[in-house]
Amino acid sequence: MTDVFDTWTDLTVSGGPVRTYRAGDTGPPVLLLHGGMLDTAQGVWRRVAPALAVDHQVHVVDLPRHGGSRPWRGLLDDAFYRRFLGELLDALGLERVSLVGLSLGAGVSLGYALDHPERVDAVVAVGPGGIGARRKAQLLTWLLLRTPGLLRLTSRYLARRPALVRRSLVDNLVAGERALDLEEIVAVVVEEARAKAAHGEPALDDWMVRAYGPFAMAVDRIPDLPGLRVPTLWVRGDGDPLVGHAELAAAAAAAPGSRLVTLRDAGHIVTYDQPDETTRLVRDFLASVVV
């Protein structure tokens, strides 16, 4: 199932190391971007990438400070990623591409599509970050995220407690212990927790931390979405505790030519709970909008 991830290419993009994976020789190109914290390409896209490769040229990437894309220095915030993604496409030799992103990856994809619609055929935004003006406990969360050393301490704590990492993952999957490939997914997530600790990285990505302001979100795509000129599919698991239906519905209503789909029996990482249905949605949507 994970043959896609048995071989890779290591690139230098925006001054740092980036590991990329490739599958499929025919069809339109698509770039898969995973989420933050303990996500990796091999974890999130383990079933989606090989299935999409049947009729697409699939490019998958470990985002900076994830998987094989480390070490990185400096601030990797929204401004960084809006530059990074274009340089990544150049390094991959992709003039135009469809972007499929989960959580952080979806927020990054939307930012780039707003800036450079001439290089993006379509966007699939799954449980996207950067949607909505406020979050619950906004000020308290901002204070915790900005507490010096806390997020690095969290990385070390998680690295030493694989049972806790497993329990948290299972608790956040609608399928729970019945999830496909559960033990393989847990192994990848635990390995990522240990890598973050070994490299002295914070548990949350800079993009996620800097998206928070004290009284409102510093990154909220919704006001900009009326200017989005790219066909967009918005996807949310009906059990997603991080991205609410109201926020995603508002995003879909603001962006011209959007579609919104809610996946039943799925949490935030829909590719773990519903990999086959996620793949079908992506394939059908791209076939309908990409020439």
TrEMBL record:
Single GO term (MF): hydrolase activity
UniProt-listed InterPro entries: AB_hydrolase_1, AB_hydrolase_fold, Carboxylesterase_BioH, Epox_hydrolase-like
Ranges of residues in domain AB hydrolase-1: 28-273
Keyword list, A-Z: Hydrolase
Domain of life of the organism encoding this protein: Bacteria
Keyword Cell membrane: no
Pfam families in the record: Abhydrolase_1
Coiled coil: none
The protein, known as: Alpha/beta hydrolase
Organism: Isoptericola cucumis
